[in-house]
Amino acid sequence: MRTIPHFINKHAIKLLYALTLGMGVIIFFTLENGHVIGGDFAQYIEQSEAILSGHTADLLESNTYAMDHSDRNIGPYLYPVGFPLLITPVTWLFGVNFIAYKTLMLFFFLLVCITSFYLFRTCFDEPLWPLIIALSILFNYYFMVSLDLIGSDIPYLFFALMSLYLIKKQRRSNKWLHQLGIGMIISFAFLLRTSGVSILFTLGFIHFYEDIKLFAGDPGSYLRGNYRRFLPYIVFIIAIILDGTFYYSGEQNHIRLLQNASVSQAIDNLIHYATEFKLFLILYYPEISVLFLILSTPFLVIGIIRNLKHNLLFLVFIAANFGIYAIWPEQERVRFLFPVLPFYFYFLVKGILIVSASAPRFKLHLLPYFLLLGIMIQGLFYSFRDFHQDNSSNVLSPASTEVFNFITTKTDPSALFIFTKPRTLRLMTGRNAIAQSETSGMLNSEASFVLKFREPMLEINGFELIFSNKDFELYRIN
What we know:
Elements: H1 3-10, H2 12-28, H3 40-53, H4 56-68, H5 82-94, H6 98-121, H7 128-138, H8 141-146, H9 153-169, H10 176-192, H11 197-217, H12 219-226, H13 231-246, H14 252-257, H15 263-276, H16 286-305, H17 312-327, H18 341-358, H19 367-387, H20 398-410, E1 417-418, H21 422-429, E2 433-434, H22 439-444, E3 449-453, E4 463-468, E5 472-477
Parallel strand pairs: 1-2, 1-3
Antiparallel strand pairs: 3-5, 4-5
Helix pairs in contact: 2-6, 2-7, 3-4, 3-5, 3-21, 6-7, 6-9, 7-18, 7-19, 9-10, 10-13, 11-12, 11-17, 15-17, 16-18
């Protein structure tokens, strides 16, 4: 048994790249053309198109109307510019090409796996353990599923991990280029997702913790010797100014929701996200996943407590993210936890190794192997199962293509529609839309048409069925 760890330690980097690239090829050939009928992806693509055409102001006007006249919170008027900017070259080269967008997501995912290995490499005596952490991400089902979605989650995770890697290295390097790199990557992470401010907070906390005594002792000497450490903050401020100068602010409606934050909501949110970690270990079996979460928590806590000083950087970043989770107005699913998941695996493995060293006869050091094996089996099995399932809720399914073509050719371009996913309808047909779930809201709106997923609809005066297929029904509001 000892020969296997020896082989892995000796060839860890080769194994990392071989497995990462191999899985990358497999995942590429399983990517589905099209996209599940959501909303975020459509707005990202529309914003990238608007950047290329110079019509961002028009998109802001259309989407502001759609968001303000919908009966629920759907999304911001505009997303931060980072992700639309990231996919703009793809839009320019290939047009609205879903496989091309998803290939870019896959590229960043492979970078996430590689970066996580190097981020944790110096935290262990042997490369075996950071390799297990990296592979736990590579074969994780939820990450694989996310690669069929066009969104900022995976690219943001890469820039967050890369930022922390550079911050970790700055203790050995105070060069201009290094500090400039930290500032640029943190800035772009923030432009991808506003929660990227957690990285800047982490950097500031670490600087304060490490330098407060030096600064208090001789401020002048400290500033002369460490002025380069202020460069990331200067770069960040410049990036924010440039963003505000050359792009449109569009998150006002999302930010307004933060005004409703309360202590009870914060506690409820934290409990929700803490229990979501169980899904990363066991899928589809709630009782077993809860049991695994309970059994793994002591190892996690021990890993954190015994590494408070050495891993302060990671812990501050985790705390900053959970601070954001606490005040976030809506409870999101597991993808919201992606930024802290690598550290969950890290402290879990650390705790297992600490307990194993104090009780060697129990051979607890084998647990990370079984953890990785379980993640691999589940990830591959459920991903393979999903690949063979028919997805009728795809924007490029025959039924979707048929109804979108009907709308494009048979309705006025200025007509307003009602649809549960208004941004998707606008991307696929060029018609603006709002979301209304109640009949009274539909009749009192300025919309001319209602598009619904096919389901029994009561005969109500004022609605005329003008098109239907196996998945959709289109009504005219008379």
